[in-house]
TrEMBL record:
The keyword Transcription applies. It comes from Halalkalibacter kiskunsagensis. Gene3D superfamilies: 1.10.1660.10. SMART domains: HTH_MERR. This is MerR family transcriptional regulator. Residues 9-55 form the HTH merR-type domain.
Length: 101
């Protein structure tokens, strides 16, 4: 079940007001594949509360001098580590319960 924070219902203007980012900055982060809004039938971008939090985090990293490429690179590395941990955990659980694939 998804949380209300996952619902993409917020327009770019409201996101801009909430984050202090310009609409252009928000679109730039989308172009850089850091944020993924959905599009309504009228092609309006829609964001979630999680997206708003993510944009604030991105803006803080940019302010600290971290570039968008470095943000993506770090996130990919973290995702890879998490996937490796999950595979290892599944293997340990399978071994403990003698589950064979």
């Amino acid at each position: 079940m998804s949380s209300y924070k996952d619902n993409k219902v917020i327009t770019i203007g409201v996101v801009s007001e909430l984050t202090g980012l310009s609409e252009r900055q928000i679109r730039y982060y989308e172009e850089r594949k850091l944020i993924f809004p959905i599009r309504s039938n009228g092609k309006t971008r829609k964001y979630s509360f999680n997206d708003v939090e993510r944009l604030v985090d991105i803006a803080n990293k940019i302010e600290d001098g971290i570039g968008t490429f470095e943000i993506l690179k770090t996130e990919k590395k973290e995702k890879s580590k998490e996937e490796t941990r999950n595979r290892m955990l599944r293997g340990q659980i399978n071994a403990a319960f003698k589950i064979r694939k």
